[in-house]
Specification:
Layout lengths: L1 H15 L2 H7 L4 H11 L8 H12 L1 H11 L7 H7 L11 H12 L3 H4 L2 E2 L5 E2 L3 E7 L5 E7 L3 H22 L3 H4 L1 H16 L1 H14 L10 E2 L12 E5 L4 E2 L3 H6 L4 H19 L1 E3 L7 E3 L9 E3 L5 E3 L2 H15 L3 H11 L8 H16 L8 H11 L9 H20 L5 H17 L1 H18 L3 H10 L4 H42 L1
Parallel strand pairs: 5-10
Antiparallel strand pairs: 1-3, 2-3, 3-4, 4-6, 7-9, 8-11, 9-10
Family: Belongs to the protein kinase superfamily. ADCK protein kinase family.
Keywords: ATP-binding, Cell inner membrane, Cell membrane, Kinase, Membrane, Nucleotide-binding, Transferase, Transmembrane, Transmembrane helix, Ubiquinone biosynthesis
InterPro entries: ABC1_dom, Kinase-like_dom_sf, Prot_kinase_dom, UbiB, UbiB_bact, UbiB_kinase
Length: 518
């Protein structure tokens, strides 16, 4: 009964915001066109489709808001105007009551917030679709931020996800572009994201890993600050971390007033991104301005601060290698190499014609290179490349979509800080250095050091393994005899089949002759 009521509410809100018109307008069929004329009552809606979709998702509640946030990252699937509007869904969810947050903390940690902390702020400082954050001070004086999962989220999402799967099935059957849009796969991807974000221990582990990647012993501590996890106050529903003080990266006037060089800050942001991607293969994939601050403390002035680690991306060594070579080929306008890399990496089918793919890549990139370098968007180039590659049956990998989305965020923040930021020239030396270290003697030495422990265990066993292999009876004659026997059996079977076929043919011929004689 509750599911039916929820479905009725979804239908009501869809009609209220004219989402039926949005669906019908994407179906190129005479019947859909007639229905579209009926639902429009002869005139199109006054509000843009992206705005209507965003408002509908906000009305449907936190799960649909989160779905809109995730969908906004799939710019390879949805129109850009819709994706830009859905990106506005960040931090637009009303907070849940503070007494519920206190009850969640007590259930998770076994004591009330007043017992656990010297001071606990009842009103949340931030509220999102999955959780909200309260500031607190621990008994030892440490300032912390306590992230609390919205109560009852698991039951809510399971019901809403079931409805989303059903709606995706309907869209898949009706929409002519469903093969490309893959609504069921999008819902499945959202399901994975959502369940990952519902486990705050996983988010805490992401935070801890990123903090370790920029720790004092890495030589990168001057680039990025990541809060320390308070593990004893962290569970699947409560995440307690060090409180970070700073200025939102989007508030450029405050940054300048604090004495921070915003042009240097823009270039540092690009360095941080490429360091995460190519040096670590592990990157913060939700780098919108609400999650990135800049320290204004004298001892760490101008250092980036990362927050919210629910969505991270991971790249294999294979992905990193091909991405770096792709970027360098772009910088050098070597479109044939870009095409070759796509085929070698398996991103396009092996039978793809290299010259045809090269021409498509050239058509995407050349219009951008005719502009001043400071006006070229590397994220937009990747986006256009993803869109062009549909005709070559490219299956876009989720980690690459996350990478492209994050690159757009980094580019947007960098250009807001410094409109003249040349991302290409900032990134090119970094990539060339990374490729040199990877392909040169330094890279060989690093890989040998990495494999040394495993080889140290295997080398003492090699003489015994070689002796065992050499002393083993030669099985080649028996294998040849078995192959010969199988070949003879196959030939005998073929002869029997030929005799049977001939017998059937004669029988059919006789039957036809007898019928003709009658």
């Amino acid at each position: 009964m509750l599911t039916l009521l929820r479905l009725i509410r979804i239908v009501f809100i869809s009609l209220r915001y004219r989402l039926d018109e949005l669906v019908l307008s994407s179906i190129k069929h005479p019947i859909a066109y007639c229905l579209l004329r009926i639902v429009r009552f002869g005139r199109p809606p006054r509000v843009a489709r992206g705005v209507r979709l965003r408002l509908a998702l906000e009305s449907l509640g936190p799960i649909f808001v989160k779905f809109g946030q995730v969908l906004s990252t799939r710019r390879d699937l949805i129109p850009l105007d819709v994706a830009a509007e859905l990106a506005l869904l960040q931090d637009r969810v009303p907070p849940f009551p503070s007494d519920q947050a206190a009850a969640c903390i007590q259930a998770a940690l076994g004591a009330t917030p007043q017992q656990l902390f010297r001071h606990f702020e009842v009103d949340p400082v931030a509220s999102a679709s999955i959780a909200q954050v309260h500031l607190a001070v621990m008994h030892d004086g440490r300032e912390v931020a306590v992230k609390v999962l919205r109560p009852g989220m698991l039951n809510i999402i399971e019901k809403d996800l079931a409805l989303m799967r059903a709606l995706a099935g309907v869209v898949e059957r009706l929409a002519p572009d469903s093969r490309r849009l893959k609504p069921r796969e999008v819902v499945a991807e959202f399901n994975n994201y959502l369940h990952d974000e519902l486990d705050l221990v996983r988010e805490a582990a992401n935070c801890s890993q990123l903090r370790r990647n920029f720790g004092p012993d890495t030589g990168r501590a001057n680039l990025l600050m990541v809060p320390e996890v308070v593990w004893e106050y962290t569970t699947t529903t409560v995440f307690t971390m060090e409180r970070m003080h700073g200025i939102p990266v989007s508030q450029t006037d405050r940054l300048r007033a604090s004495g921070i060089n915003v042009k240097d800050l823009a270039r540092t942001g690009v360095e941080i991104f490429f360091t995460q991607v190519f040096a670590d293969g592990f990157f913060h994939a939700d780098m919108h301005p609400g999650n990135i601050y800049v320290s204004d403390a004298p001892e760490t002035l101008g250092r980036y601060i990362a927050l919210d680690f629910g969505i991270v991306g991971s790249l294999s060594e294979h992905d990193k290698n091909y991405l770096a070579q792709n970027f360098l080929a772009f910088f050098r306008r070597d479109y044939r190499r870009v095409a070759q890399l796509h085929i070698e990496s398996g991103w396009v089918p092996a039978d793809t014609r290299e010259e045809e793919l090269e021409g498509a890549v050239r058509a995407v990139c050349e219009p951008y290179f005719d502009r001043p370098l400071a006006e070229i968007s590397l994220g937009q180039v990747l986006l256009r490349l993803f869109q062009t590659s549909r005709r070559f049956n490219v299956e876009i990998q989720p980690q690459l979509v996350l990478l492209q989305k994050t690159l757009l965020n980094v580019e947007g923040m960098g250009r807001e800080l410094d409109p003249g930021l040349d991302l290409w020239q900032t990134a090119k030396p970094f990539l060339e250095k990374w490729m040199h270290e990877r392909m040169g003697l330094a890279g060989l030495r690093q890989r040998l050091d990495k494999e040394a422990a495993q080889w140290a265990q295997m080398l003492p066993q090699l003489p015994r393994l070689v002796h065992t292999a050499l002393s083993r009876p030669d099985s080649l004659p028996s294998m040849n005899a078995e192959i010969s026997r199988l070949r003879k059996a196959q030939e005998q079977t073929n002869r029997l089949l030929m005799v049977f076929a001939a017998t059937v043919a004669v029988a059919v011929g006789v039957a036809i002759w007898a019928l003709a004689g009658q």
